[in-house]
Each structure stands twice: as C-alpha cells, then as structure tokens.
Amino acid sequence: MAKTLRIALLLLAALAVLAGVGIAATWEPDRSVASLEARWAPRPSAFIDVAGLRVHYRDEGPGDDPTPIVLLHGTSASLHTWEGWVAALRGQRRVVTLDLPGFGLTGPNAEGDYSDAAYVRFMLAALDALQLQRVVLGGNSLGGGVAWQTALAAPQRVAALILVDAVGYPFVPESIPLGFRIARIPVLNRLVPYVLPRSLIESSVRDVYGDARRVNAGLVDRYFEVALRAGNRRALVQRLALTQWSDRIGDISNLHLPTLILWGGRDRLIPPEHAQRFAKDIAGSTLVMFDDLGHVPQEEDPLRTVAPVRRFLGLPG
C-alpha cells in the first residue's frame, strides 16, 4: 500500500513538473501599446479619445464624403481585417475602421463591460468623436451585431447596413476556435491572460477560414501580437463569459434601411442559415453567399467580397 502511494505521489509530482514546464514554455507577458504601434499602427493609423478610451482608428478616402463607411471587426480581430476592402474603396469613398474596446490596439475599457449595450453606447460616442453624423455601418461577426443594434438604437445615424457573417440569432457552432473554447472553460480560462501559445492562435485563425491554405505566417503574427496587447486577453474572457443574447433580436425585422448581407458558405462558427434568416427579417435586403469562404470572408478574399459592396454603394466596376 505504501509503495503504491509513493508511486502515485511520484506520478503526480511528474505531472505537475510537466504542467509547469508547459506553462513556462507558453508564458507570454502583456505587451504595451507603444511596443506594438510601430508595426501595427503605421500611418494612416491614429488614436482618438472616445469617452476616456484611447481608440485606434484609420480614416481614409475623400474627406467630403457625405456618408462615410464605418467598418467594425469581430471578436479577437482588429481593424486590419478590413485592409483589402479599404484599399478597394478609399479612392471613391471615405472609409473609417477602428478597434473595438477589448480588442486590437484600443484595448480594454475601464468598466470591463463588453455587453452588446456597452458596444452600442461606444459606437454612438465614437461617431460623435469622429464628427460623423450619418454613415454606412458595416461589421463582421461581433462587429455585425454591433452594427445592426446601433442602427436600431439610432436609425437617424445609419443610412445603410453591411452585415458580414454577423452575430444575430442564438446558434450552436459546428466548430469553435480552440482559443475561444479555452477562454470559456472555468479555472482554465484564468491562465488565458498569461499563457498564449502561438500555435493556439494559428489553429484558431485556420478554423475560421474556409480554406486554411490562405492562412500565412504574417497573418498569424498579426493576430498573435495584437492579442498580447495589455488587457486584451482578460477582456476576451469577460466578453465570452456573456452567454445571454441581445434583447433586441426580436427587433431585427424593424430594420427598414438598405442592407447588404454577405456570408461565407463554409462558416463553421455562425451557420450560413443565419444569412437567410437575416434576409427574411430585413425586408428588401440583398444576400450574397460565397460558398468557398469561411467566417471572415472580407479578410479571406477581399477583392471578391468587396465587389458586391461596390455594387451596393453604386460604385462603378
């Protein structure tokens, strides 16, 4: 009996050592915004105060555009996800992209509040800070959910919507990125603010692409380094802890404005069927499916996915 107990204790000790070695090997300290700006916030990036929060944004294209386009990224992403679209639009339209609170170089808000209502309040404050009275508001995933809820909250501020694989209805994902799964596991998620293997980021990015072969080292670098911005990992845990759905879902059918819905047919996070549901609930909306793309079609194939956006906006070509 004593011998068995000693063996068990030795095995536990060995496992503890291995776990410690694994944690030490993947330990990643927070990085300051200053250390990240040179690579991830070159011009035309700038920062603006929005209700006391230093927000990373880009404002490109003709300044006299009466209805600028504002694009919002999804969970754990950043304004960089729209670079392909911006390059295709800024010659004719003013395009503003920004990092939402808790993500990108904007980082966490002081309240630690990442509810849908908090994001809508932030967006209205951001529009005021940027002196944008009326915009075309677009968003991917979380950003899409923020976009349509902002349009409901302040219809006079939103002239049209562009929803890209947007959050909207309760769903059961076919596949959840590994990083999101870990951030939702009690106890284990306490390590998230301190431990971040680059391989975890790569796996998560590959999971949201329709064709993982499109994921390259530079793309993984961006997601990895921006995730290390001080406070972002803790904010992700706080955001993913919110399991309730917006109480405004039933109001989607009250959206009466021009709406373009884009969706990746290989989206394993938010089912493509939700594209049809948005199209049904928003009268007069236009739906375009990309059968071979995933959850972030604007990033995976920007040239192909921006084409229907240009048509929607009445731009030539």
CATH topology: Rossmann fold
Summarize the helix and strand pattern as letters.
HHEEEHEHEHEHHHHEHEHH
The major β-sheet equals: 8 strands, mixed
Task: Determine the CATH superfamily.
Answer: Alpha/Beta hydrolase fold, catalytic domain
Number of domains: 1
Assembly classification: single chain
Helical fraction equals: 40-55%
**What is the rounded Rg?**
21 Å
Q: Compute the number of helices.
A: 12
Spatial shape: globular
What's the arrangement of strands in the largest beta sheet?
A: 1-2-4-3-5-6-7-8
Total number of beta strands: 8
Strand percentage, roughly? 5-15%
Distance between the termini: 80 Å
Structural class by sheet pairing and helices:
alpha/beta
Give start-end ranges of low-pLDDT stretches.
1-25
CATH class: Alpha Beta
How would you summarize what this structure contains?
The protein has 317 residues and is an alpha/beta fold.
Structure in words:
- With 317 residues, this protein is α/β, with parallel strands linked by helices.
- The protein has a single domain, classed as Alpha/Beta hydrolase fold, catalytic domain (Rossmann fold, 3-Layer(aba) Sandwich).
- It has helices spanning 2-26, 33-40, 83-89, 116-129, 142-153, 178-183, 198-208, 217-227, 232-240, 273-281, 297-300, 302-313, and strands spanning 45-50, 53-60, 69-72, 95-98, 135-140, 158-164, 259-264, 286-290.
- Strands 1-2-4-3-5-6-7-8 form an 8-stranded mixed β-sheet, sandwiched between helices.
- Helix 10 (273-281) links the parallel strand 7 (259-264) and strand 8.
List the helices and strands and how they pair.
Elements: H1 2-26, H2 33-40, E1 45-50, E2 53-60, E3 69-72, H3 83-89, E4 95-98, H4 116-129, E5 135-140, H5 142-153, E6 158-164, H6 178-183, H7 198-208, H8 217-227, H9 232-240, E7 259-264, H10 273-281, E8 286-290, H11 297-300, H12 302-313
Parallel strand pairs: 3-4, 3-5, 5-6, 6-7, 7-8
Antiparallel strand pairs: 1-2, 2-4
